[in-house]
Amino acid sequence: MKKKNERAIIRVVIATGISSVVTQLVTIREFLAQFDGNEFVIALIFFCWLILGGLGTLLASLGNQVTDQRSTGRFQNKIWFRNKIQRATIDRLAWLSLLLAAFSTVQILAIREFRDIFFIPGSSVGFYPTLAYTFFTIAPYTLLVGFVLPYSLFVLRNDTPAYPGARIYITDNLGDTAGGALFSFVLVYLVTPFWAIFLANLPLIFVTCLLFSRRSLVVFLGAGIAFSILLSGVFLERATLKPAVGKLVYCSESRYGRVAVHQDAEQYTLLSDGIPLFSNQNVNMAEEAIHYPLSQINRVQHILLISAEGGMMAEIEKYKPETVDYVELDPEVSEVLFNFGLIKKISGLNVIHRDGRAFLADSDKIYDAIIINLPEPTTFQINRFFTDRFFKLAKNHLAPNGVLSFSIQGFDNYLAEPQRQKLSSLYNTVADYFEHILLLPGLKIFFICRSLPIEPDIPTRLAQKKISTRYVHAFFYGNLTKERIKYLNEAVDPATPKNSDGSPRLIRLMFSQWFAKFATSPVGFFGVLSILCLIYFIFITKEEFVLFSTGAMVMGSEIIIIFVFEIFFGYIYFQIGLIVTVFLAGLMPGAFLGNRLSGHGIRLIGITDGLLIILMGILIPAIWLGGDRLPVTVYLGFGFVISLLCGFQFPVALALRGGGNSAVARTFSADLIGAAVGILFTSVVLIPYFGIIWAVAGLIALKSISLMVVSTQYPRISLCKD
Amino acid sequence: MQRLTRRKFLYCSAGLLPVACPAQAFWPFGDKESHASGPADIRGQVFKNDAPETLWKWSREGFRYKKIKDGKVVCGICPNRCILAPGDRSVCRSRVNMNGKLYSLAYGNPCSANTDPIEKKPLYHFKPTSKAFSVATTGCNFRCLNCQNWEISQVKPHEIRHIDLFPKEAVQAAQDAGAVSIAYTYSEPTTFFEYMLDTARLAREKGLANLWISNGYINKKPLVELCKVLDGANVNLKSFSDAIYRKLNGGRLEPVLNTFKTLHELKIHFEMTNLVVPGYVDDPEMVKAMCRWILDNLGPDHPLHFLRFFPRYKLDRLPPTPVSTLVRFREIAMAEGIHYVYLGNVPNHKGNHTYCHQCGKLLIERQGYYIPTYNLTGNRCRFCNTIIPGVWPAKGDSVSKLFQNPI
Question: Residue A713 has what pLDDT?
């Protein structure tokens, strides 16, 4: 009976791991489709998820104390009484698991539907409202998922009081890894979000049914309701995506996000993660992006276009080029562009579905024009197309009379300070590789870069080439007066630091711009967070601090490894998915080993802390010296070892902490809270504001503090009590 | 309780399946009404204790305000009628109460000054292809979610870079640029009323026209005072619904309608713009009601521009307005009886051209800022001699085909 219960609970823990990771990934994608997809928001969602998970585990600790009090009494040693208590706690766990399965769908529905109740439809949302909305919509699910894991252990310990806490951690990691791999390599390719949630939660419902001590009508009714809620999501998929304006004529979940096409009257608009990118009626953007650079060249033969928008090919066709290499990372986007007639297929067109930077690095082709048509560099991924290394790469692939063109968000009548700094940083970066740079104002600011002089009078150039346009011909003189061009070009501040891969200055300027747009500042948030962290540090034990730093190290190093990998190899979905998976997978064998060797206690914590510091220390020189010459397996291996060491520390610290129920809950929560803080600070503070080296240094510093705590406070550790 | 068999479980589950299937039919959020959800009112608030410690070079005592008890003042420029205690800053961010007196902090410190084609304002019936010297300081009494100039309209005067251009210098700069008019524009000129009025008075003395490009959110008395030196205006009628005004713009409709009536009564040439925001301002019934109000109160001769919306500022998750919607609105407005209805932000469309309301012939062909065809003689149609409302070059004066400002 004991073994049977144990097996059933273990199955539930694994299924919960699968369900929670899939739900987490779907939730994050859903938030990115509903809110700004900048690096700050991405970090914020992870942060809320992990913090609430950590709070959930702390709640389990409190819940356990209440249960302990109830279960102690005059019948505590009677077998019938213990069986009754055991049945009750198992049933409670089962009901919570069913609730969890149902909540996963409810959560996604809530994210989609409450947005337009709390915020004005069609409007973007600032930092604090995003934080509040994220926090409250995911709170029920994440608190519950955080609660369930330690609670499962408490239930197990009703039967087997000495059941090791580390084993539940390992089991959970097994479920998490399976969930991560299932979503990243299977579900994301095949199904919609609600289908993914449905499929990932089916095992949970099934194994939960087996967990109930008695399979009564009420149980099956409960399981049936949970199942129905999950299934309802599948039927509500389209209804909940219905736009406020027009109708949804196409929607697809690609690996990279949600691609949708809205039709309003005769107009088709392509939306990527909720942001309207192109419509079939925007001629001016296409004309500006194509004619500003191409008009400079006498004979255009080979063009590289990194991402495209409506009408561009028709404009390119006017130059009769021999080849047009159109690189689009997301195959869904180019397919939609062609299918809905947003861009046309022209002679010499070669569509390439790859990361643009990786393509250029691997290509030896020389182009007359390289046109970058990407959105603002709000993420590390996009920032790679606006850095010194990329501009050098582009220069090496341009003919002597070739032209590079890219754009950033423009302005109407006043160049605000964050935008001016952004512009200056970009100008100073690209100026190292091109002798002539012309900035042209408008809804977008265009950078036209060449080694030869640039002619600003575009309509005259087009007239010489006998190329007709609708927008440029009619509006250039007037929208682009000589005063406006002069104002823009003189606004460049030569002292503004350059944007590089290792120190993505543009990201921090994008943050400034985003906060300026909503007239807000993150200072209050970080202030409160710092105070809460300090209070937390006062109340946690040394072992919990070790695990806090370990959690921060896992998430922080994962962000850094992905960031570095993207710099050298580009955004390759499958391999980045692998990196994420090895970071999850490494924890499991690490914890297994740690559990075996936990008797060696504090010494092992010290050794692993030291190893983590050394590993992070050699990361930077290894990467900068090896760079893209290092095989991908090195990145995977590095991630695996880091997470293995971090996973190793958990059972060891837990053993030092005593392994009681309360200790388990608190160590779980320390790990999660550390991970939350780690991802937030690495993504939005360390990398953008201090660069990659200081980000690594920050993590090393944190682990060094952990090492110091371990090595100097050891005698006190042994005195700690739950 | 009776234990269930596997077979019963399967029956039970099958019985529950139909619960999930029709979920879509009962889903309460199926039909989303943009204007029915989200916050209902985004109007701005007075900034308490936000005034600078001292005045600066670009401060002037307000022209229209009232002192009330406890050192408080009431600004009389716009319908917000901000009540400011000492140290407070107005909703528009440009006016403060310093020791019981109201001061404007936006006087002679424009953050933007450009020479624009008049068509860009847009003013289609005012000296075509002429140059308008355009100035703006910071500030706005609205909070439009789609503001294209939010970098200057939603900030305080101290927060941005500006140039030194007091009224005398502004008029000189306009003359140097070869402009025939000065346009008070970009942000909301009502918020720099004192600067605008003083500059306009000087400009008129120098023979320059004054153009007010505004949201029309101004009280009658200052407007009447302004109209004494005003030659033309373009006033934005953002929608014909007070609820949408409050929700998208942070203002009210009624004062704007009053502004139109005042301008009409005082015989100021003005044109109206209506930005057609999808999901909010794209209701044909609302357009019909708007046109009927215009006809009843202002007559058929004031040009009306339907502008195409593009996602901007905070309202950046809506698609652009389909061109056919604008075309339909133009047809509705003309069918209702408005003589001159234009499309904006739609390059090379016939809705950009001016046709004689009497004979229907093409009077002005517009390709952006380029005018290949011009068939007016003075203010009359060349074909049927009908007077075309507007401010036109005098008979015999030539009209340049192109906005003259070589790169």
Answer: 60
Measuring CA to CA, which residue among A186, A217, A203 is closest to residue A97? A203
User: A43-66 b/e with 16+ CB inside 10 Å = b?
Assistant: bbbbbbbbbbbbbbbbbbbebbee
Which whole-number Å values give the CA distances from A275 to A24, A46, A513, B151, in the listed order?
22, 21, 18, 21
Alpha carbons A292 and A308: distance in angstroms, whole number: 15
Residues of B in contact with A194 (CB under 8 A): none
Cβ separation of A122 and B318 shorter than 8 Å? yes
Asked if the model's pLDDT at residue A572 lies above 80, the reply is: no
- Residue-wise pLDDT for B249-270, tens only, equals 999 999 999 999 999 999 999 9
> Cβ distance A254 to A29 under 8 Å?
no
Q: Does some domain include residue B56?
A: no
Q: Is B105 a member of any domain?
A: no
Residue A720's pLDDT is what?
39
pLDDT surpasses 50 at A638: yes
Chain A residues with CB inside 8 Å of B4's CB?
A: 215-217, 220
We report the CATH number of the domain holding residue B140 as 3.20.20.70
B154 lies in some domain: yes
* Sequence-separated (6 or more) residues with CB below 8 Å from residue A605: A543, A546, A649, A652, A653, A656, A710
| Residues 6 or more apart whose Cβ sits within 8 Å of residue B124 | B271, B303, B305, B340, B342, B354, B364, B366, B390
Q: Match domain A522-722 to its CATH number in 3.30.450.20, 1.25.40.10, 1.20.1250.20, 3.40.630.30.
A: 1.20.1250.20
How close is the nearest chain A Cα to the Cα of B92, in Å?
A: 14
Token pair listed for B75: 């600004």
Give yes or no for A456 touching B (CB within 8 A): yes
Nearest to A478 among B278, B311, B368 (CB): B368
Q: Does B304 map to a domain?
A: yes
| Mean pLDDT on A366-383 | 93
- From the list A216, A227, A443, the residue facing B16 with the nearest CB is A227
pLDDT at B362: 97
User: Between chains, do A283 and B347 touch, taking CB under 8 Å as contact?
Assistant: yes
Q: For A269, name the nearest residue in chain B, comparing CA atoms only.
A: B319
Contact call for residues B104 and B97 (beta carbons, < 8 A): no
Pick the residue of A41, A240, A414, A520 with the most B CBs within 10 A to test the interface with B by mutation: A414
Name the amino acid, one letter, at A661: N
Site of tokens 């913090």:
A51
Which chain A residues touch B21 with a CB distance below 8 Å? 231, 235
Choose the CATH number for A282-500 among 3.40.50.1240, 3.30.565.10, 3.40.50.150, 3.30.479.10: 3.40.50.150
Confidence of residue A215 (pLDDT cuts 50, 70, 90): confident
In chain A, the percentage of residues whose pLDDT exceeds 90 is 60
Alpha helices by DSSP H, A570-683: 573-597, 602-626, 632-657, 661-681
A214 lies within 8 A of chain B by CB: yes
Mean pLDDT of A178-205: 94
**8 Å CB contact of A413 and B152:** yes
Q: CA–CA separation, A420 vs A491, rounded Å? A: 7
Residue from the list A274, A479, A519 with its beta carbon closest to the beta carbon of B317: A274
Q: Could you tell me the pTM of the whole model?
A: 0.90
Do residues A670 and A544 make contact, with C-beta atoms less than 8 angstroms apart? yes
Domain that holds residue B185: 112-335
Instruction: Please check the confidence at residue A76 and state whether its pLDDT lies above 60.
Output: no
Chain A's closest residue to B131, CA to CA, is: A478
Number of domains in chain B: 1
Chain A residues close to B23, C-beta within 8 Å: 232, 235-236
As a whole number of Å, the CA-based R_g of chain B is 25
Decide: A156 and A567 in contact? Cβ < 8 Å: no
Tokens standing for residue A229: 């809620």
